[in-house]
């Protein structure tokens, strides 16, 4: 079996639902696969949660009565019932299995739903952590003793656009733009420190669907203080020196 096929068995393994053959194959693979080990660990909270989220199901009274009636019958030695009894027991077991199958499917579906919820929550927590880190950096930058506010105005390529930046030589630049036009996939905006010795790239970025962009960038060591901050449209990935149209410009006072 391939790695992806074995990885699909992680949830069933965590639930103890694999048959002996699949379990043996999965455990042999698991011993040397860090990704599958992490996948199994990720299902532990799901398995714990199932104990509190999946309702206990009891077989119907009719099914219970049929199984008990078969099990309590004692055929006479040598009677035909002694031969037929195993068939009755097998039939009862098949009926019980058929009754439980929908609940097994329900359990597996619930496991997948909970696993997806765990992954979604983990992604949201990671995003929240990133936002908190960015907020701390912004607060630190805005509190810098050498911070300067820079207002950037839209140029002929985007007269409706605007931006504000806070520049600190010691702590970097915090930049927020609005109403920027959307750009094709092979293009991106590039923020520049325009210094007396020439332009220096600060960051490459793309706006969201509303034309808004927000970023924090470091000031390169040894760079002279800029006279101007500017934004141009460049090839995706950025360029060493500006080549495209100017979209935003603002003096650093």
Count of distinct structural domains: 2
Shape descriptor? elongated
Percentage beta strand:
15-25%
Count of runs of 4 or more consecutive helical residues: 7
Low-confidence stretches: 79-84
Please report the first level of CATH classification, the CATH class of the largest domain. Mainly Alpha
Query: What is the arithmetic mean of pLDDT?
Result: 80
Q: For the terminal residues, how far apart are their CA atoms?
A: 65 Å
Q: Which helices and strands occur, and which strands form pairs?
A:
Elements: H1 3-7, H2 10-14, H3 20-30, H4 34-42, H5 44-53, H6 61-72, H7 80-142, E1 148-154, E2 162-168, E3 172-178, E4 187-195, E5 198-205, E6 213-217, E7 228-235, E8 246-251
Helix pairs in contact: 5-7, 6-7
Supply the key terms:
single chain; 253 residues; alpha+beta; Arc Repressor Mutant, subunit A; 2 domains; 7 helices; 45% helix; elongated
Describe this structure in words.
The chain is α+β, with helices and mostly antiparallel strands. It has 2 domains: 3-139, Anti-sigma factor, zinc-finger domain (Arc Repressor Mutant, subunit A, Orthogonal Bundle), CATH 1.10.10.1320; 148-251. The chain has 7 helices and 8 strands; from the N terminus they run αααααααββββββββ. It has an 8-stranded antiparallel beta sheet, covered by helices on one side. Helix 5 packs across helix 7 and helix 6 crosses helix 7. The longest helix has 63 residues, at 80-142.
